[in-house]
């Protein structure tokens, strides 16, 4: 029994860093804040999280909920913009209907990689209380589950 407890504690310790850690603005490095303000100078209210060695800023731009992922040096890595599931590209909606017919799309987002401009679409799908996040390119090809 003791072995199982030790294994469970070890597994929990390994999983803990993978979770996002909420931060207050004072805990965010100045370079990260400066990089964010350079890209989004009009944004005043930001919620910060740390994900591994990266920082995520959650905010609203107009009516759209967004997040920006930045490196520890303040470089913008990607942006994510929420969108209604009905605004996913037709090829993505078609793929979801064919590949996941028993799931319901509960959330959707457009993710743009900084620098390259590569765009992917995220769909959160649920069935019987089980959630999955799926990523697609604009042509409806599944990129990652």
Automatic annotation (TrEMBL):
**Pfam families assigned:** PepSY_like
| Record-linked InterPro entries | PepSY-like
Top-rank taxon = Bacteria
Putative beta-lactamase-inhibitor-like PepSY-like domain: residues covered: 54-140
Q: Keywords in UniProt for this one?
A: Signal
Signal peptide segment? 1-20
The record's listing under SUPFAM superfamilies reads:
BT0923-like (SSF160574)
| UniProt xrefs under Gene3D superfamilies | 3.10.450.360
Specify the protein name.
Answer: Putative beta-lactamase-inhibitor-like PepSY-like domain-containing protein
């Amino acid at each position: 029994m003791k072995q199982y407890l030790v294994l469970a504690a070890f597994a929990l310790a390994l999983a803990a860093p993978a979770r996002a850690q909420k931060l207050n603005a004072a805990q965010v490095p100045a370079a990260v804040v400066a990089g964010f303000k350079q890209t989004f100078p009009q944004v005043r209210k930001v919620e910060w999280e740390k994900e591994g060695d990266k920082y995520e800023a959650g905010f609203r731009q107009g009516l759209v909920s967004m997040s920006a992922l930045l490196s520890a040096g303040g470089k913008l890595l990607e942006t994510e913009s929420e969108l209604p599931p009905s605004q996913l590209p037709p090829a993505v909606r078609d793929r979801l209907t064919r590949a996941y017919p028993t799931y319901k799309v509960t959330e959707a987002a457009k993710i743009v990689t900084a620098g390259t401009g590569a765009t992917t679409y995220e769909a959160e799908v649920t069935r019987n209380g089980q959630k999955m996040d799926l990523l697609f390119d604009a042509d409806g090809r599944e990129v990652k589950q």
